[in-house]
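[#protein-structures] MJ: dropping BTB/POZ protein here for a structure pass
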Amino acid sequence: MIIFHEEIIKNYENLYKNKDKYDVIIYAGEKPNIKEFHAHSLILRTQSKFFKSAFIEDIEKKNGCFILHSRNSPDVFEILLRYMYYGNIDLTKLQSHEILNLLLPSDELEFQPLVKCIQETLIGENHEDFIIKNILEIIELTYQKESFDMLWNFCLQQICFKTDHLFKSTKFLTFNPSIFEIFLKRDDFYVSNEIIIWENLLKWAYDQDPIIQQDINKWNKNEFTMMERRLSRFIQLIRFYHISSEDFHSKVYPFKEILPSNLINNILAYHMVPNEKLNIDIQPQRFKDPALGYVWDKSACGSKLIIEDNGKVVFLNGMSLSRKIVIVLGLEYVHQKISIMKPLQEVNLLGGY
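AK: finished. structure tokens for BTB/POZ protein:
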């Protein structure tokens, strides 16, 4: 059998370029940046389920051509239109933000192979700086979108491993509270001290609309009520029993009026009679899981084997692990650990700090 893929693709490329017998006019963008594109309904229907459904509806026609409108920018739409004719996109020639801008419209047009390819490209080390710099915007973009789960999981793991990506961002105060709630439910949402989460939660609550002053001694009844409502969904997710008695006394107890009374009483009993067995459900302490994706930090250990060429983002995409061995180094690096993992049905071992 002789297959002439290149010749067929070339014919489609020529059809795209010369627009011979086009029957669709698409206006892409928003004023004042609108561009007119010409296409063929047969190509659009064949390549995209979105367009296949669109042409079933009663579409405006003018001079024998279907008239369509796209909110996508002309640059983005042109890339996707070429993809429908050419069958390929060279993502290596695009900047990080240009690749990300393709993600949502590609999903809307149901180009699932392209959606997967875009995510794999962004997760690659060439776009690491861009991802970290824009990680909150990206995680909100991918939130509750099943087709974006690869990028969502990657960003989620990055933030869990280094919570500064969230708490030290200028965008934290406007961050989606539903996503924040997801973080707080995770054992691997690592902070060196649980009080850090409480302090940042307060900071977030103060800054919601309307803004509440931070001096609790000056609050009126209405401000107490508003703060209680803002914090209510998060209270059960804060691991108060892992906050020191000193921090609890100075940073949590002053807010006892907006916290459940049984919680306050239990925490007081926990600290005042530590040897007494109390009927309290204490959540486990948060931990930093080395099996999750993170950025190598060669300065954090004494190894000379970790160099710039080897330091890279590590991402385990749902890998099933049958064994996990933790080796503690000598006393000099007793706080460091090497995790060695053996994937199922594999002979190779994976390991690292």
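MJ: nice. The first strand starts at residue 24 and ends at 30.
AK: one more thing. Residues 293-335 have pLDDT under 50 and may be disordered.
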